[in-house]
Amino acid sequence: MSLLRSDRFPAVVLLSAAAVGLLVANTPVGGAVDAAMHVHLGIPGVFDLSIEHWIKDGLLAVFFFVVAVELQFELTSGELNSARKAVQPAIAAAGGILVPIAVFLLFAAGTDSASGWPIPTATDIAFALGVLAVFGRGLPPALRIFLLALAILDDIVGIIFIAVLFTSGVNLGMLVAAAVGVVVFGLLSRQLDTRGRRPIAVALVIVAILTWAFVAVSGVHATIAGVALGLAMAQSPALRVRHALEPWVNGLVLPLFAFSAALVVIPSVSPSELQPAFWGVAVALPLGKIIGISLFGWLALRIGRERGAAPALPFADLLAAGALGGIGFTVSLLLGELAFARDALLRDEAILGVLAGSVVALVLASVLVSSRARHYRRRARAGRPAFEDGPPSGAEPA
């Protein structure tokens, strides 16, 4: 289980699962596998979803629960628990959202692909930290902290996009029932450390499943249930549950989602015939992210910085962080599914764009992170501090 809690191995599993999905879809058995993913399971007329939707609406809610627990911790006790800590990654995250949207719309404005503008805004934190772990030996802790804060803020925006943009025909009665479920879940979780754990834990599981079901039929995307429950749960038990779920999320939930999302047939067309949905995402993820994050992050260093204070990160480190931010993958794949749910062609091309753009960003990030890691290792061997003027504000010396 410890392997599935590491930064490196889950990223490899995730990439492998997507590669297998893409490969299978483009073999003779691809049609049969796709048909199997659309087999319905459940109670007809009551609660009936295809296998594909059980993965994307059900299992992925567990992933969002884990993400929400991490958000809750970082916002209350971690790297985003004050305005001073959050300002630079927040400004950089804004650039990493606005610039990719602008780049995407350069390709897609005025076309049927334009509704896919949220797709290149996401950063896959598991992938990004995995690349950082593989290639970043010797990097100062400040870069990982910055990237973690940046990706968490990206996640918040992605969750808002899912909740606001991809909600239709809301059933207020079911939504109220879900809200009650979230409140009950939060109150019960606060009894875990004061009463018998097993009865409370069983009750929590039942309430969580009911809350997810209420959200699923309310018209709001079902993964939002995971977010709400993760934010509502008392922090101490939430962190314990996150620790227990992490290997399952990394080893089962995300690989299954990556495999199912990547079951896309590569169109037999020339590059010029590909839709703006493909080109917009494929370019906006690596290029938009690296420009937006590095430029806005650099500007953030010069807003309100004390005279003579050391910069939080050198610009070269911001470039590396921007490249890492372009690895969209999980949330970008989900946003692609939602943005083009009614147009299979655009959906498939957007998903191919996510895969292509994320791979380009991964390669760029590997090169930039390796270069920066060598730079810091050379400084360490020479007995010089990681930063010319001392460590960044709020960071420990490397």
Automatic annotation (TrEMBL):
This is Na(+)/H(+) antiporter NhaA. Belongs to the NhaA Na(+)/H(+) (TC 2.A.33) antiporter family. Na(+)/H(+) antiporter that extrudes sodium in exchange for external protons. The keyword Transport applies. The chain crosses the membrane at residues 90-111, 117-135, 142-166, 172-188, 200-217, 223-241, 248-266, 278-301, 313-335, 350-369. Its main location: membrane. It is a multi-pass membrane protein. It is found in: Cell inner membrane; Cell membrane. It catalyses: Na(+)(in) + 2 H(+)(out) = Na(+)(out) + 2 H(+)(in).
